[in-house]
Specification:
The complex is a heterodimer.
Chain A (H helix, E strand, L loop, with lengths): L3 H15 L6 H17 L4 H15 L2 H5 L3 H16 L15 E7 L5 H14 L4 E6 L6 H12 L3 E2 L6 H14 L4 E6 L7 H14 L3 E7 L6 H12 L3 E5 L8 H10 L3 E5 L7 E3 L2 H8 L5 H11 L2 H12 L5 H13 L3 H5 L7 H7 L3 H12 L3 H5 L6 H11 L3 H30 L7
Chain B lengths: L5 H10 L5 H11 L5 H13 L4 H18 L5 H15 L11 E6 L6 H14 L4 E4 L8 H12 L2 E3 L7 H14 L4 E4 L9 H17 L4 E9 L5 H13 L3 E5 L9 H9 L3 E5 L7 E3 L2 H9 L2
Parallel strand pairs in B: 1-4, 1-5, 2-3, 2-4, 5-6, 6-7
Antiparallel strand pairs in B: 7-8
Chain lengths: 443, 304
């Protein structure tokens, strides 16, 4: 997941502060020097970094903070607040037309991921019960139209294309058709271009003037370096963008672009793209991202993802089973499958507070392991699944053979099932603890 | 529009922002009469803004300080020359890129850096030199990737070996190698799907492709080129590191230098990993992909 390098560095810079009972101005300044380096290495724009550390220092060396009981925590709180502010404060939503269709234009450099993001956005809207139309206006890159058509086909969203004709006319005709056929959203995929290519930028301006989009989204690769600022400024000056979509956030990028773009252009990040699957688009929440960067986890996104993938009825059933301690291996299997549906494992784990993504990579969270687990359970008889205590040595041997694994694997699974059951028994207690406010997050 | 020389293009590419390295350095030099800490700090800023990265910037600054102390340089004017020398020194590579035939070129990189386009240009380039070229469409993942390569193949007059979308890329490469052998090709260029370097399974897939090449085409000279986007920041180092580990990259192609990005990260990549830069791309045209020349690159970075 993105930001892990930054998270690690930020944590170690700030740890020096929390371990001290009393802070001096020098302590804060030293920590800020480390923070500055951490941010620069993460490709945050130089000027933004300068400004950021200055603001945090100014706030942190104030009397109240230095003399409070937990000065270190207070400084972290300030860093968290300033980071959130840097990324836009609160979540920004898509601008929607008062009367459908809402017209969205996707723009950006070559290779930033416009076509894939267009598909992801269409699927995102479709999941909300909307009716989007994709428009292929990239007439330059070989096979770009073909790519959008395949993407559209996968998610069952119609694609409007007129071959390699004038993109301005294609966009115009698409909007007319959308009105005619009552689409809610029109997503226009444009060709990638350099922000300094006057001719190509004029083409975008012409499309904009012809179709009057309600939203122009600039697609930016999260791995972009210091140049992210130049790019977004130029696109914004020419077109007046409404927001930014940050893509490829599942790399190990430190995501500095995310921290700079809003600060420099004033335009919010509206979505982030993760993963190659078309489901991988999420609304951007500055406050959650800030706590992720500081290693404080992102419980809210975790819950939302769980809600999206987990069937409520099944969840209720499961809860009952857990309460009455009738949780079988079959249920365990179902759980695993649902967790897998929530996205890449390391990605999910990184959302837990206090989990250091860097340490996770040592754990080797291999998706294939889950497949093995599934195979093992599926090689058991129904009786074995409901009553695992009957699984003796000869049964283990048979199960290992049937699933193409070995006995150690089977043992490991049975052990983790046991652990899981024990953990589940304690679940009601945790719930109570949360209600009483005893179960606290690290910050 | 008159056809511009490629050096002019490179210069133009690196010259687009007013705040380029050189003019910023000049400004600083003009502003300061003494070499003091503040002067160094401003220079540091310029390098970091060009994506040179913290580590490499520190290394360069240390070298500058040493030279200044040793030679008792009191006036900032000389600094620019030293800076330039140092960067050329970092970028220059000892070994020449010599290709023996038959040759197989494996092209790798993260998503969207311009692998397929680079392959199209490389194919045209070798073809124009009179070589017999074959392309393997190893990107079986992205929608329409093979079609995109097909268009490039037609433009260059080069055949493309491809399978259906979603098939095993190693199988495509295997077939292409057999075809290259039986048709007696000089150069086989293998495309691969863009992959983020931290995806373990995808990197394993790449290792498998690499193994297939070694096993089936061991007698061919092998080059593994990593394509880097000039707009990429410090992540490029991590990309180069991991790709080097998995497939042993032998060179770098730096693309999209015609924007405002200065591609300073290649200085960091070369300095930290010692992988030579082989080609740079400064435009959309076939002729805009050129062998890398450290002197010309730094000259374009610094000249007015």
């Amino acid at each position: 997941m993105a930001f892990e390098g930054l998270t690690e560095k930020m944590q170690s810079a700030l740890k020096k502060l929390t371990s001290k009972g009393k802070l001096t101005e020098k302590d804060v300044k030293d920590a800020m020097r480390d923070v500055r380096l951490a941010l620069l290495e993460a490709d945050v724009n130089f000027l933004v970094v300068k400004d950021f550390t200055k603001r945090v220092t100014e706030r942190a060396v104030g009397q109240d903070i230095m003399e409070s009981l937990t000065p270190g925590q207070q400084v972290i709180k300030i860093v968290n607040e300033e980071l959130t502010e840097l990324m836009g404060g609160t979540q920004s939503k898509l601008t929607i037309a008062p009367k459908p269709p809402t017209i969205i234009m996707m723009v950006g450099l070559q290779g930033s991921g416009k076509t894939t993001t267009s598909g992801k956005l269409a699927l995102h809207l479709k999941k909300q019960g909307k009716n989007p139309l994709l428009v292929a206006c990239d007439i330059y890159r070989p096979a770009a139209i073909e790519q959008l058509k395949i993407v559209g086909n996968k998610i069952d969203v119609p694609v409007f294309e007129r071959g390699q004709r004038d993109p301005i006319m294609i966009a115009h005709e698409a909007v007319l058709e959308a009105v005619d056929r009552q689409f809610d959203y029109v997503i226009i995929d444009t060709a990638g271009r350099l922000h300094i290519d006057e001719e190509m930028m004029d083409e975008l301006l012409n499309i904009k003037e012809k179709v009057n989009p309600h939203e122009i989204l600039l697609v930016v690769d999260a791995m972009t370096g210091q140049d992210a600022v130049n790019v977004s400024q130029s696109f914004d000056e020419k077109l007046g963008i409404g927001g930014v979509v940050l893509t490829k956030l599942d790399g190990d990028t430190r995501g500095g672009a995310a921290l700079s773009v809003k600060a420099v252009t004033g335009k919010p990040i509206k979505f982030v793209g993760v993963g190659e699957k078309l489901e991988g688009l999420e609304p951007f929440h500055p406050e959650r991202m800030a706590s992720r960067i500081l290693g404080m986890g992102d419980v809210l996104t975790l819950i939302e993802r769980a809600q999206e993938t987990i069937d409520e009825k099944k969840a209720a059933e499961l809860e009952k089973k857990i309460r009455t301690q009738q949780f079988t291996l079959d249920d365990f299997l179902e759980q695993l499958q649902q967790v897998r549906g929530m996205g890449p494992l390391d990605d999910i784990m990184a959302m837990f507070p206090g989990v250091n993504a860097k340490k996770l990579s040592g754990l080797n969270l291999d998706e294939k392991q889950l497949l093995h687990t599934e195979a093992i359970i599926q090689s058991m008889t129904i009786e074995e699944r409901t009553n695992p205590t009957i699984i003796n040595a000869s049964r283990r041997k048979r199960i290992a053979k049937g699933s193409g694994t070995n006995i150690q694997d089977v043992n490991r699974l049975l052990k983790s099932y046991g652990d899981f059951r024990r953990m589940m028994k304690q679940l009601p207690n945790i719930e109570k603890a949360v209600k009483k406010g005893k179960f606290k997050l690290p910050f | 529009m008159a056809k511009k020389g490629w050096f002019t293009k490179l210069k133009e590419g690196l010259d687009k922002t007013r705040q380029n390295l050189s003019s910023r350095v000049d400004e600083i030099i003009k502003y300061y009469t003494d070499i003091d800490d503040e002067f160094y700090e401003e220079l540091e800023e310029v390098l970091i803004m060009a994506d040179v990265g913290v580590n490499t910037t520190m290394e360069i600054m240390e070298y500058l300080r040493e030279r200044v102390d040793k030679e008792k340089i009191g006036n900032p004017d000389k600094i620019k020359e030293i800076l330039r020398e140092k960067i050329v020194e970092i970028l220059r590579s000892e070994e020449e890129c010599e290709i023996a035939y038959p040759c197989v070129i494996l092209v790798v990189g993260v998503n969207g850096v311009g692998k397929t386009t680079t392959i199209g240009k490389l194919a045209s380039r070798y073809k124009a030199e009179g070589k017999k070229v074959l392309i393997a469409a190893g990107d079986t993942f992205r929608a329409a990737a093979a079609e995109q390569l097909d268009v490039w193949g037609q433009r260059a007059g080069v055949q493309v070996i491809k399978h259906a979308e979603g098939s095993d890329p190693a199988a495509v490469i295997y077939d292409a190698i057999q075809a290259a052998k039986s048709r007696d090709m000089d150069i086989l260029i293998c495309d691969t799907a863009g992959r983020l370097h931290n995806k373990k399974n995808l990197m394993n897939e790449l290792a498998k492709i690499n193994r297939v090449i070694d096993r089936e085409y061991g007698k061919a000279h092998k080059e593994v080129l990593l394509v880097l986007d000039a707009t990429t920041g410090q992540n490029a180092i991590s990309q180069a590191k991991l790709f080097k580990e998995i497939v042993g990259i032998t060179g770098i192609v730096l693309t999209k230098l015609d924007g405002t990005a200065k591609g300073g990260v290649v200085i960091a990549v070369k300095s930290e990993l010692d992988v030579p830069i082989r080609y740079i791309g400064v435009g959309e045209g076939v002729e805009d992909l050129q062998p890398f020349d450290a002197d010309a690159f730094v000259k374009a970075l610094f000249d007015e």
